[in-house]
Amino acid sequence: MKIATFNVNGINGRLPILLRWLAESQPDVVCLQELKAPQEKFPIAAIRDAGYDAIWHGQKSWNGVAILARGARPIETRRALPGDPHDVSSRYIEAAIAGVLVGCPYVPNGNPAPGPKLDLKLRWLERLIAHAGDLLSTGVPVVIAGDFNVMPTELDVYKPERWVDDALFRPEVRAAFHRLIAQGWVDAVRAQHPGERIYTFWDYFRNAWGRDAGLRIDHLLLSPALARRLAGAGVDRAIRGLPKASDHASAWIELADHPTSPRSSPRRRAK
């Protein structure tokens, strides 16, 4: 089973790129973020023509999340984080697919920091931590895959010293992410590629892609039941280099049908 996360940065404007990637990569499950489309403008006909069904929570501007499943129907279980009934932003959706519970978050950016946007991000992360803990307590196989807008360590950012005051790298934001991981989640890409510099985002400015001045902010977190099935993980870097591409690349994992031995699990290099 192959599961991917991809911040498409506008699903309708980049639909040809998304469809090309789906055809080439053939993930079984896809979490999309930053749809930038209201509910009625989601291109469900084109997605179904590509062999996928979907659930989505659309919204104009910067938000919008979706979960796609190849040859299956995602069973929606949630479309907002609990804890704030006044939060109407479309930043979380969740579904059951083939025995796996899939959560798709799009964490707020938080800039400029400090300030109210950072405060909002930290509150949102606290709600995510609380909900993730509830999901773990069920014991079911869970993956939380999305754009977390967090670089967990210095290895995940091309020049750490330039990002110390940014909301994606501030100590309190990274501390929140590490508290999430400490519940028992496995950062799948990092687990498969310890010590390697792997990025999922390159800004449009200052030739960031050409200089490989990237960030790793898109993550797939696995519950213990799924982590034992982890057989591979990586990033489809090539998609970022296409004309009119998103500023993100897709990150993915492959799960074996049965638990694998940690010593025998193959490591697959990021593409």
TrEMBL record:
Residues 4-248 form the Endonuclease/exonuclease/phosphatase domain. InterPro entries: AP_endonuc_1, AP_endonuclease_F1_BS, Endo/exonu/phosph_ase_sf, Endo/exonuclease/phosphatase, ExoIII-like. Keywords: Hydrolase, Magnesium, Manganese, Metal-binding. Mg(2+) binds at residues 7, 34, 147, 149, 247-248. The record marks 149 as: Transition state stabilizer. Probably binds two magnesium or manganese ions per subunit. Its cofactor is Mg(2+); Mn(2+). GO terms for molecular function: DNA binding; double-stranded DNA 3'-5' DNA exonuclease activity; endonuclease activity; metal ion binding. Its EC number is 3.1.11.2. The record marks 218 as: Important for catalytic activity. GO terms for biological process: DNA repair. The keyword Hydrolase applies. Gene3D superfamilies: Endonuclease/exonuclease/phosphatase. It is an enzyme of class 3 (hydrolase). CDD domains: ExoIII-like_AP-endo. Signal peptide: none annotated. The active site is at 106, 147 (proton donor/acceptor), 248 (proton acceptor). PANTHER family: EXODEOXYRIBONUCLEASE III (PTHR43250:SF1). Belongs to the DNA repair enzymes AP/ExoA family. This is Exodeoxyribonuclease III. It comes from Vineibacter terrae.
